[in-house]
Amino acid sequence: MLRLWRYLKPYWLLILLNILLLFVQANADLALPDYLSKIVNVGIQQGGVENATPQAIRQSEMERVFLFASAETKTLLTESYTLVDSQSADYASSLKRYPALEKGPVYLLKALDQAQLDKLNTAIAKPLLIVYTLEQALADPAKAAQMGQSFDFSRLPPGADLFALLGRMPAAQLTQMTGAFDEKFASLGESMLNQMAVGAVRAEYTVLGVDEAAVQNDYILRMGGMMLLISLLGGVCTVITGWLAARTAAGMARDLRQDVFKKVESFSSAEFDKFSTASLITRSTNDVTQVQMVTFMILRMVFFAPIIGVGGILRALGKGASMWWIIAVAVAALLGLILIVFSISLPRFKIMQSLVDRLNLVTRENLSGMMVIRAFNKQEFETQRFDKANRDLTDTGLFIARVMATMMPVMMLIMNGISLLIIWVGAHQVAESTMQVGDMMAFMQYAMQIVFSFLMLSMMFIFLPRAAVSGDRIADVLETGLAIHDPESPRAFPQPFVGRIEFRDVSFRYPHAQDDVLCSISFTAEPGQTTAIIGSTGCGKSTLINLIPRFYDVTGGAIYVDGCDVRQVRQTDLRDKIGYIPQKGLLFSGTIESNLLYADKNAGPPALQEAAEIAQASEFIFSRPEGLSAEIAQGGGNVSGGQKQRLAIARALVKKPPIYIFDDSFSALDFKTDAALRRALKEKTGDSTVLIVTQRVATIKNADQIIVLEEGGLVGKGKHHELMQTCETYREIALSQLSKEELA
């Protein structure tokens, strides 16, 4: 995969935008448990009262708070509140909110920022809670008894005001008497102390006549609305990031397929020997799809999962730092599960793509060789051969699927186990007043988010090995060195171009072979003449003419076209001068016309008709109602071998090149059609250089020059009657095909 990262460079802007939106999405997801915690803690348990600092407090109650506040706290409270009475300008509006204002002055909280409010909460919580506790004790004898010896309420004179008496006590004695409260509050954290102080605030609101139900509903609706907005934001980010990731992955896959196709188009025959056709198809389709899928997952999960995981851990520790060990246990269990699954499935992923190659190969051979299979009654054998390749792939896929299938139940077991552990430990902490219920619920949700982040990463660890193998296979094609290159400073053919071909001591050896297949071949093919090449099977005839268009490059000697070494000109310039008809006529799906126009897209109907007539193809073309518009199936499967060869010849004739190469292109033609085609070629291609490879002596009997090959060497060169006298190899071939009378 790392060898293909350069294909992501054109999409760096989309990737950057995707990461930013993933960050927003992750923070939106992480914010939801916190808002749920607030709804439970504040909206339900605290009646919608958020702070230990009351928005309004009676003057008499504030004076009681001052009794237990430090000098610094008194100053802070005085600066933070405004006293409102019947003479104040905002008396009427305040009276609607706080009906008790009619009975006496009320302190109203000024507009403070969050930092000031947090400081005030810390300062007022303890003195306010002491006052509230004492007031409850005075109202309830049972609670007074619980106060112990710190305050003996039985000694109070009937009708005496406890707080008035406390106000007349020396400060040192008052501090000593309230020490019991300090010891009790010392065991509580700041969060729990503020939550308990909220009870005093709610009691004060009740006295002030505040509509507590409205306060609670307002808070819950406000927090619920925020959750909806955050969820909507997260949903929008999810859709956009999915679109960006899909666009990036699809664009990368498109570029990969395009470059693989272009690379394969530039392959010479030497490179095609390294890769099978089935393998190249798999690499261009299935392998690219694997890389595309993993790229999408990386852009959606690999960047998203760490943000969720790290953010979840930090927020969870903020809600319940004492339960950090639960997250550690969950992470350790998840990592162990991922490592086990990864170690089991990785070896199978490495062989998965080779099994896909094998299945494609068997399928391709079976479909292309169907007639041969039926002719030899090998259907059962081929069925078994396909079944083995299919079963090997299926068994490997099932093994991986079973390993992956165990992940989800084990993952759910870990998640449910973690949930139970959090509830068990959290419930005890709630009972001990060291944690709030909402915080426990938020901690549980953060733990689930952490687990899911590891689940996303584990999915990457499962799919990444197979994609890595696919990426390497694609990179192998893209990084394959080409055996045939255009020169850095190419030459141009002289004008006018005549098409003279000269072989000068040409030798050739296939890559990694020990022996030459062609040795010291020298001859010249003149324009306006037909040069034929004949020899026994495997003597190197097709190899020889494949050196002209540089399908292979010579390993010794040189080939000159119009005085230019073919290695010194551009391949496109060279092949533009050649009309090549391969040994196996290949047609493309489409119509007869589209196949003929493949040679020259600007050719008109007269040129197409003339080429068809020369190739002896006009009879079967125009005997159909569709004519040139007749459909051609893939590979020319709906025409005969002879018709396919004639259409291939017609295609080359449409090009009207100065050089024609016929690589045994008449083998499927009957002798009558063969003779007629050669006569027409002689008339219409009189100025061109024509090279014909054939096994038939009758086809080349009248050639201007015949080259005879045997075991890679040139054993004869001349006209037919000359070779019959001087070349034993040619004479044996000729006598094996024709009688002496026919050869005369």
Structure report:
Strands 9-12-13-6-14-15 form a six-stranded mixed sheet. Strands 5-4-7-8 form a four-stranded antiparallel sheet, with no helix packed on it. It has a three-stranded antiparallel sheet with strand order 1-3-2. It has 744 residues and is α/β, with parallel strands linked by helices. It has 30 helices and 15 strands. Helix 15 runs antiparallel to helix 18. Among the domains are: 160 residues, no CATH class; 170 residues, P-loop containing nucleotide triphosphate hydrolases (Rossmann fold, 3-Layer(aba) Sandwich), CATH 3.40.50.300; 69 residues, 3-Layer(aba) Sandwich (Rossmann fold).
List keywords for this structure.
744 residues; alpha/beta; Rossmann fold; 6-stranded mixed sheet; 4-stranded antiparallel sheet; 30 helices; 15 strands; 62% helix; 10% strand; rod-shaped
- Average pLDDT level: 84
Q: Alpha-carbon distance between the termini?
A: 68 Å
Task: Note the overall shape.
Answer: rod-shaped
- What share of the residues does DSSP label as strand, in percent? 5-15%
Write the CATH architecture name of the domain at 496-577 and 657-744: 3-Layer(aba) Sandwich
Helix content bin: 55-70%
How many H/I helices? 30
Secondary-structure blueprint:
Elements: H1 12-45, E1 56-58, H2 59-67, H3 71-80, E2 81-84, H4 91-97, E3 106-109, H5 114-139, H6 141-146, H7 162-168, H8 171-177, H9 179-186, H10 190-208, H11 212-265, H12 269-272, H13 277-302, H14 304-319, H15 324-368, H16 370-375, H17 379-405, H18 407-431, H19 437-478, E4 501-508, E5 518-525, E6 530-535, H20 541-546, E7 556-561, E8 564-565, H21 571-575, E9 578-581, E10 590-591, H22 592-596, H23 605-614, H24 618-622, E11 631-632, H25 641-655, E12 659-663, H26 671-684, E13 689-693, H27 697-700, E14 705-710, E15 713-718, H28 720-726, H29 728-737, H30 740-743
Helix pairs in contact: 1-11, 1-14, 1-19, 2-5, 5-10, 11-13, 13-15, 13-19, 14-19, 15-17, 15-18, 15-19, 18-19, 23-25, 28-29
